[in-house]
Design brief:
The structure holds two protein chains of two kinds. Chain A is mainly α. Chain A contains six helices and no strands. Helices cover about 80% and strands about 0% of the residues of chain A. Chain B contains ten helices and six strands, in the order αβααααβαβαβαβαβα. The chains are: A mainly alpha, B alpha/beta.
């Protein structure tokens, strides 16, 4: 199992999947900030006056972490940020669903009325597993590399 | 010791990403033309009194006759838009604390039964096709600019009733903002929207209204 997980192609696929999803998700939010701000507001989880700052900065974090994770820059930092974002998404969507709010998901900045649903939550959980895997795999590969280097130097 | 160094490096990278995001977000927001204020302002809604809507039923009818002569020529706006493709976007964002006039379900149905005004459905076309208020024209707020030519010939004082999904739905406000840029003056938003309409077991129409 560990060998499959430490296979670099498996890791590359995971990185590409998560990277592209995040880049894709960020674009419309960046282009139409007002729509995303209204989506954020509808969740009623952030103080009203802070909604716009959140709605402005969040998609850029998504875009940059997405690009970094595809390109292989700051992989662990990006994976950690993506993990925390996904946890926020999962929690906020679950809260909204439990309150029976019928609101736009805002997941892909869509203003075309993709309502929140448990299906979206499961998708995010899948992405969460991927991002946690990327975070820890990179650590594994690094420690393996380190021990190999140690062996060589001995 | 080593893990400490690792986590320090991780923290530095994370703050770098967040810092970069903040700088890019503010810079883009400043220059994009569709920017939003950093601190959010409340959408202001005013419930319209019955007396204003129905005071003298002839008022709304006569509005057309009186104003047809002084329809404002909006060509300058159009020229401006052509010169600078982003100027329409600027007009969108230039709204200073817009106040939306809200009507209730009973006011909405009464206006419909008295055949007053024209109804705009601000939701997406997909939702409109599934069902809408009888006689409503579909002007999806995000593609409102595509309906520019249909809106152009309407007298600027036409009574326009807008609805979208519900009170939280922003598409109605966006459409109203757009209509303001075209100099329309007489817009009312049915705040309960499609949700309240369906919940009140009102008739759902699926015939598509062509403009």
């Amino acid at each position: 199992m560990l060998t499959i997980l430490s296979n670099k192609y498996v890791q590359l696929t995971a990185r590409f999947v998560i990277g592209f999803v995040f880049v894709f998700a960020s674009v419309e939010k960046i282009v139409l900030p007002e729509v995303f701000a209204q989506n954020v507001e509808a969740y009623k989880l952030i103080p009203f006056s802070l909604v716009n700052i959140f709605a402005l900065v969040l998609p850029w974090i998504e875009l940059i972490t997405g690009l970094f994770i595809i390109r292989g820059v700051f992989i662990r930092a990006s994976a950690l940020l993506i993990t925390s974002l996904l946890i926020i998404f999962i929690l906020s969507m679950s809260f909204a669903l439990l309150q029976d709010l019928k609101i736009d998901c805002g997941c892909f900045g869509s203003a075309h009325g993709t309502l929140i649903s448990w299906k979206r939550v499961y998708e995010d959980i899948f992405l969460l597993i991927l991002s946690i895997y990327i975070f820890f795999y990179d650590k594994l590969s690094r420690s393996k590399r380190n021990s190999d280097e140690a062996k060589l130097s001995n | 010791m080593k893990t400490n160094q690792h986590s320090k490096g991780l923290l530095r990278e994370i703050s770098l990403i967040i810092g970069l995001s903040i700088i890019l977000a503010f810079a883009y927001n400043y220059y994009s033309g569709k920017g939003i204020p950093i601190i959010r302002k409340k959408v202001q809604k005013v419930v319209v009194e019955d007396s204003l809507l129905f005071k003298n039923s002839s008022m709304l009818d006569s509005v057309h006759e009186n104003t047809i002569q002084d329809i404002k020529v909006i060509a300058p706006l159009h020229e401006r838009a052509l010169r600078n493709p982003d100027s329409m976007a600027n007009l969108y964002s230039d709204k200073k604390n817009p106040v939306y006039k809200i009507i209730t379900m009973s006011q909405f149905t009464r206006l419909i039964s008295e055949k007053k005004g024209i109804i705009f459905d601000a939701r997406s076309n997909e939702e409109y096709v599934k069902g809408h208020v009888r006689g409503a024209h579909n002007i999806p707020a995000l593609e409102a600019i595509d309906h520019f030519e249909e809106l152009l010939p309407l007298p600027r004082d036409t009574l326009i009733l807008i609805y979208c999904n519900g009170p939280e739905c922003h598409l109605g406000h966006m459409l109203a903002d757009f209509l303001v840029t075209l100099d329309f003056k007489n817009m009312y938003i049915f705040d309960g929207g499609w949700e309240e309409w369906v919940n009140s077991k009102m008739p759902i129409d699926t015939t598509i209204v062509k403009d």
